[in-house]
Amino acid sequence: MDGNKKISIAVIKRLPRYYRYITELLENGIAKVSSQELSRRMNLTASQIRQDLNCFGGFGQQGYGYNVEVLHKEIASILGIPDPFNVIIIGAGNMGQAIAKYENFNKRGFVFTGIFDKNPNVIGQDINGVKVAHIDTLEDFVKENKTDIAVLCIPKENAMEIARRVAALGIHGLWNFSSTDLHNIEEEFGTVVENVHLTDNLMVLGYRISELRKNGKN
After folding, report:
1. Angle (nearest 5°) at CA 72 between 1 and 96
2. Domain definitions of the chain by residue range
3. What pLDDT, in 10s, does the model give residues 126-145?
4. Which of 34, 53, 94, 168 to pair with 119, CA 20 to 30 A apart?
5. Domain 9-78: top CATH class
6. Residue 96 and residue 190: Cα distance in Å, rounded?
7. Yes or no: is domain 85-200 CATH 3.40.50.720?
8. 37-49: per-residue pLDDT in tens?
9. What is the reported pLDDT for 62?
């Protein structure tokens, strides 16, 4: 891949989906796949798939398609999966605990190494093999343990303060579930931020259901 080539965020956001489908093919013992077959499985056009993968070098052969094992390794490499990311969670409430217990994150190379909170009722609890520590120990933990990503599962009124605190420690990524967008963190610290708004997705689903009802599809 040309290091100077700017890849659109739309393509980047489709990569995990490609990885998921290619993983399924690999697990089912399928050795090769065409863009047409991927198109049928993923509900994307074959042209879109070829364009997306060509952004990273193509990986396919005309008349043959894609070697599934090679494509799986290449996409994994692009996503950084061969090199595990060490992840901490800030906020050990329902959301934080659910994320910590989701085994597929570990399978994808995201290893949870620490969980932090200020609530004395949860400090010391073991969540999927990781004990909840007090938030005041965050700085010492990060100094002693390589940390790539912090997951914020905290109230929105505390999000910016904690985000700045985390970014100042040199953590490269923030996965933010705090129901507020973290503006200026990337510009100020160079920390990559991915904001997640679960209610937004649910409301979009609600809208689509409402449209079906309007059209008489109960």
Report:
1. 100
2. 9-78, 85-200
3. 999 999 999 999 999 999 99
4. 168
5. mainly alpha
6. 24
7. yes
8. 999 999 999 999 9
9. 66
